[in-house]
Amino acid sequence: MKAPTYKLRNGAEMPAIGLGTFGSDKYTAEEIANAVYGAVKYGYRFIDCAEVYGNEREIGGALGRLFADGVVKREELFVTSKVWNDHHGCVAEACERSLDALGLSYLDLYFIHWPFPNYHAPGCDGDARNPDSKPFSADEFISTYRQCEELCRRGLIKAIGISNMTVSKLEATLPRMEIMPSALEMELHPAHQQPELFRYALEHGIRPIGFCPLGSPSRPERDRTSEDIAAMQMEEIVKIADAHGVHPACVCLKWSVQSGAAPIPFSVKEAQYKSNLDCVCSDPLTEDEMETIRRADKNCRLVKGQVFLWEGAEDWRELWK
Ligand SMILES: NC(=O)c1ccc[n+]([C@@H]2O[C@H](COP(=O)([O-])OP(=O)(O)OC[C@H]3O[C@@H](n4cnc5c(N)ncnc54)[C@H](OP(=O)(O)O)[C@@H]3O)[C@@H](O)[C@H]2O)c1
Question: With a 6 A CB cut-off, is 48 part of the ligand 1 pocket?
Fold first, then answer.
């Protein structure tokens, strides 16, 4: 199976679906690396990585085996990574560490994972607060972004990505950028469609990449709240899935690609990652089905980011202004 692609503003072709690699505390780095091997062998060409996921060395091992076994060449793959919040002051070192771990000489896209340097210990409790955390600052963000621009000029990254942004943060920072971002990683599933941000990104030549495209059913307990809505259980999604004779996961992914995003579903299970790729290559949703899903938006954010709040902040909504 070969996924459709999007042409990014730097001229590169990005596959319209990728494999996520955040194991949510549930899967080991080896299991995820094995999934990367199997998924690329099956036809995936886009792998979404990040240093904070703690598995780039193992994924690098899988990529090395894929190259050695002649399954793909480096230039046929689209590999991303992300600078974590506590490395905003030393982006080049973080990027070089990711390249070394992944065994690559360049990344196709390198993201600023969150638009502020607020740091929390991996796996910490949702109510934990770091006393050094501060509200978003356009100056701080641009100083981090400048370092990404330098990585682009050095050829270590082909394009810059931004992640977890809002329209107002983009308005405050886009005019100050010298190399425009090619993609925006954003939470995107039928229960959280962020139409304003989505439109804004496309209008500015920034391709949306959808994280948690299935509503992240395996996310850690600390990231769950009683108001969360499960995208794959929404009645509209289940009904459309029944009409097509497919799993609700397929409806979420078809909707995402047909909307113009590149979803990056995570799975270490062979049947799941194969079906996730297959379903975006055939049997599209009808216009009526797309419209039904558009109207079913619940504005229900799952990745709230509350661990990045500063002291005195009211609640997680302040992060998304
Ligand atoms: N930029 C950011 O800040 C950010 C934030 C979050 C995520 N991400 C990226 O986005 C990726 C995806 O997000 P996510 O992993 O949180 O959520 P997700 O892709 O929405 O959900 C993944 C889970 O869905 C289930 N699943 C996968 N395929 C399925 C299928 N065909 N049928 C039924 N269930 C299926 C699996 O659960 P089981 O394992 O229980 O089977 C899997 O663990 C991450 O891995 C990461 O690369 C980025």
Answer: yes
d(CA 89, ligand 1 centre) in Å: 29
Residue 321: inside a domain, yes or no? no
CA 137/CA 307 separation, integer angstroms: 17
Instruction: Among 44, 114, 214, 302, say which to mutate for ligand 1: greatest number of ligand atoms within 8 Å of CB.
Output: 214
Residue 34 lies in a domain: yes
Closest C-alpha to ligand 1, atom 21: 216
* Residue 229, C-beta contacts closer than 8 angstroms, at least 6 positions apart: 191, 215, 298, 300
Q: How many domains does the chain fold into? A: 1
**pLDDT tens readout for residues 13-63:** 999 999 999 998 899 999 999 999 999 999 999 999 999 999 999 999 999
Closest CA to 163 of 283, 285, 49: 49
Q: What is the pLDDT of residue 123?
A: 67
CA 294 to chain centre: 21
Q: What angle do CA 238, 241, 247 make, to 5 degrees?
A: 95
Cβ–Cβ < 8 Å for 116, 55: no
318 within a domain of the structure (yes/no): no
Is 269 close to ligand 1, i.e. is its CB under 6 Å away?
yes
| pTM beyond 0.85 | yes
Determine the structural domain holding residue 60 and report its residue range. 5-313
Predicted confidence (pLDDT) per residue in 205-235, tens digit: 999 999 999 999 999 888 899 999 999 999 9
**Is position 320 within any domain?**
no
Confidence at residue 25, expressed as pLDDT on a 0 to 100 scale: 85
**What is the best residue among 21, 22, 49, 233 to mutate for testing ligand 1's pocket, by most ligand atoms within 8 Å of CB?**
22
Q: Residue 22: which CATH number?
A: 3.20.20.100
